[in-house]
Amino acid sequence: MPELLTPLSANRAAGGWQHRFAHRSAVLDCDMKFAVYLPPQATAHHKVPVLYWLSGLTCTEENFIQKAGAQRMAAQLGLAIVCPDTSPRGDDVANDPGYDLGQGAGFYLNATQAPWAAHYRMHDYVVHELPALVEAELPILPVRGIAGHSMGGHGALTLALRNPGRYQSISAFAPICHPSATPWGQKAFRAYLGDHPDAWREWDASLLLAQARDPVPTLVDQGDADEFLARELQPEALENAARSAGYPLTLRRHAGYDHSYYFIASLIDEHLQHHARALIK
Amino acid sequence: MPELLTPLSANRAAGGWQHRFAHRSAVLDCDMKFAVYLPPQATAHHKVPVLYWLSGLTCTEENFIQKAGAQRMAAQLGLAIVCPDTSPRGDDVANDPGYDLGQGAGFYLNATQAPWAAHYRMHDYVVHELPALVEAELPILPVRGIAGHSMGGHGALTLALRNPGRYQSISAFAPICHPSATPWGQKAFRAYLGDHPDAWREWDASLLLAQARDPVPTLVDQGDADEFLARELQPEALENAARSAGYPLTLRRHAGYDHSYYFIASLIDEHLQHHARALIK
């Protein structure tokens, strides 16, 4: 039987191991890479809960593991962190010259429109295929939190809200909160989902949260100097939906912080602690 | 009067600010960039001690600030961190096709040989010109520690050992400990200093440390899975010199760690605490 995971790199980090693997994705019909941090508590005889981290536009599986400084707290808490890529990849995968559509910009949804529908099924990949793989091949429990940044914050919120019971905790940095009403989201939704408002509603965190029936503790941090705040992110839409629905959202605004990884690195420990409270009993 | 510092970027980080600046270096006779983290304690009315961080081969002023995750502990301690580039830069600055000589590989020395001597004076730049600039223009005290990685670890050790009284604390990750006897160092020394063994001795940490008269608390961390350990780094030379000289060196070996920034990020907090013990009273 061929190995399912091809090791790309392994670096000791904070007492555990930062791995990168390649594998064949049946769902996406292409070769994919992902990163996983295994804390020292994860051994052949002991599995650990896991946080899925979804990155933003233009990122790969490497940005978070290099820039967030998350490994030390993950090691303290005993949390694994799985970081998928941000889209299907490869020469035969549809692409677009813009940074905000196509490869590097999968928006964590299942595309229905040509030429995207052939490979762009990041929802199914992140929610089903990748967890099944890492839970079978690595010392990782089916006890899952989900987090992300910007497009990945949209991903974390929508994937959790669409799949009640699958994630015990949610967090996001500077998420795209209302993509059906903002430019990045509209461009992506028009391409991937077509001009179908009903389809767009199914991938919009603020609209999904207004109808959520299975509340999960949700932490969102937003910098008030974020260059994309008003045009692309619109956290007030999420806040209003949570208020109407009585949803357990904690949304914090932080003076002076921008959209960069410096913001993430400044607060990642608090996000990991937020997830650990739900995932580690 | 023209501004001495041209702001390149400023990102709020861990309650302080991660800055990058450009400036004209008279010593190097070229335009240079550097990064400085100012913790929240640094204000117009309150200056803070400073750690100089020297990066390794191929790096710029950006690697450490993006990958080490140092800002949170620096903010807690109230330490500024200044990160110079690793060589003079520019189209009219001598270069070499190899990654281990020329731009990105200044070795923190003053070159004496053509064509390098015209610009390659990183010792004088890091020890004198850059501190004078940041202490005049930013809320930074003349209370200095120095640290670095690989070629920058060599730099931290040699600059401190050559300049008694100028640095109150030293640390290094995986430093080149005995460059006059190892390939990277020999290639650089031959080019920058010529075939003059007496000149090489003046830039070799193990040889300098054997004769040090002004001991400074020195912490060195080395991974035992470092791919450059035996060929390029030779920490045992530094250890032997310290033992003979009775020098206060703490050299720790860490199982499984390699030469990457994951090693630095895993232990940077302990290095910052080491410096703070000497710099913050």
From TrEMBL, chains A, B:
- The superkingdom listed in its UniProt entry is Bacteria
| GO BP terms in the entry | formaldehyde catabolic process
Q: Record keywords: Hydrolase included? A: yes
EC number(s) reported in the record: 3.1.2.12
Active-site feature positions: 150 (charge relay system), 226 (charge relay system), 259 (charge relay system)
InterPro entries annotated for this entry?
AB_hydrolase_fold (IPR029058), Esterase-like (IPR000801), S-formylglutathione_hydrol (IPR014186)
Q: Name one GO molecular function term.
A: carboxylic ester hydrolase activity
Which reaction is recorded as catalysed by this protein?
A: S-formylglutathione + H2O = formate + glutathione + H(+)
Name the keywords, alphabetized. Answer: Hydrolase, Serine esterase
Q: Which GO terms describe its cellular component?
A: cytosol
Per its UniProt record, what Gene3D superfamilies does this chain match? alpha/beta hydrolase
Family to which this protein belongs: Belongs to the esterase D family.
What's the stated role of this polypeptide?
A: Serine hydrolase involved in the detoxification of formaldehyde.
Q: Which NCBIfam families match?
A: fghA_ester_D
The name of this protein is S-formylglutathione hydrolase
Encoding gene, per UniProt annotation = yeiG
